[in-house]
Amino acid sequence: MTYYTKALTFPTIALLCxxxxxxxxxxYCHAATCKQNLLVQAIAQVxxxxxxxxxxxxxxxxxxLQIRPIMVAECNRILKKQGSPVRYTIxxxxxxxxxxxxxxxxxxxxxxxxxxxxxxxxxxxxxAFKRTPRNNAYWQLIKEKL
Length: 146
Description:
Elements: H1 10-19, H2 35-48, E1 55-56, E2 61-62, H3 69-81, H4 96-110, H5 116-125, H6 133-145
Antiparallel strand pairs: 1-2
Helix pairs in contact: 1-2, 1-4, 2-6, 3-4, 5-6
């Protein structure tokens, strides 16, 4: 397993997004300016400052996208439902490539239109998010990074 020891730059995150394009439904996925890739970059900057080793002990959220164990379980539930043999582990949260893959699995299932605002709000509040002051503020932070 690869562990990164410093914050990742936007170009590095873009490269990782490119690697994970198999999970992106965007027709422009291989472009450096892919809107979905820019969205992941913005979320990574807000969530962890681009630090793949970030760890929020209060929420048990780790890695580039601050993934919690419940997100790993949700991605595995989606994959099982889709008949995929792929499964993720709790340790996969620390790996940027795996984190981005889980992001796309979750988004493609719950947000097939890949609406950026919905994607950001769901990442912060789950698939049943409601517009609240907390996720309004989160969406504003994401928009500032886009």
